[in-house]
């Protein structure tokens, strides 16, 4: 599949994941969204790589969404606004400029909002399932603090916990992918 072969308004089924559709329109929207928020250009040389990456991302996101629904994970407006603010603080965008960029590229802001909500929901699910199983040792914490003295012990502990949660998340996604139809 070539990303250039997709018409922006084409809604053909591209992938079916556990009876959930991912259309060519979804793929084009995500390619454009990623190009803007991650700051890369789509060229003839990287077209297929971007397409494959986006398709994998949408498949994983679809699997995550199914698990999120299974556990009835929800995100309230305050959680969403906090995550949105963090996005703008950590990136070189402000909301108004990003909205304008989206409008120029025919991307719905709701695509971006959904992208953030799925991220928050997945983090809540993984934390709820595995946080109590994480552990840190003083040796691990001291090692991180020694390598970077600007990091407090609490920040180092949180980094270790997040790394463990990320490993659990990746394993769950691989398992869901392997079980998917």
Task: Describe this structure as you would to a colleague.
The chain has 181 residues and is mainly alpha-helical. Helices cover 67% and strands 5% of the residues. The chain contains seven helices and two strands; from the N terminus they run ββααααααα. A hairpin with a 2-residue loop joins strand 1 and strand 2 (20-23). Helix 3 packs across helix 5 (109-130), helix 5 (109-130) packs across helix 7 (153-179) and helix 6 (138-147) crosses helix 7. The chain is globular, with a radius of gyration of 19 Å. The two termini are 20 Å apart.
List keywords for this structure.
two-stranded antiparallel sheet, disordered N terminus, globular, single chain, 2 strands, mainly alpha, 5% strand
């Amino acid at each position: 599949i070539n990303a250039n072969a997709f018409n922006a308004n084409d809604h053909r089924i591209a992938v079916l994941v556990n009876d959930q559709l991912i259309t060519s329109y979804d793929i084009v929207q995500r390619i454009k969204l990623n190009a803007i928020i991650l700051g890369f250009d789509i060229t003839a040389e990287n077209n297929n790589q971007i397409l494959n990456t986006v398709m994998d991302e949408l498949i994983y996101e679809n699997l995550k969404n199914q698990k999120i629904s299974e556990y009835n994970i929800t995100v309230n407006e305050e959680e969403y606004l906090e995550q949105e603010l963090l996005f703008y603080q950590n990136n070189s965008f402000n909301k108004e400029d990003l909205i304008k960029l989206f409008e120029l590229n025919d991307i719905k802001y709701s695509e971006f909002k959904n992208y953030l909500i799925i991220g928050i929901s997945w983090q809540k699910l993984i934390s709820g399932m595995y946080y109590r199983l994480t552990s840190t040792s003083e040796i691990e914490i001291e090692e991180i603090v020694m390598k970077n003295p600007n990091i407090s012990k609490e920040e180092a502990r949180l980094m270790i916990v997040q790394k463990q949660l990320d490993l659990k998340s990746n394993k769950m996604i691989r398992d869901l992918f392997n079980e998917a139809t």
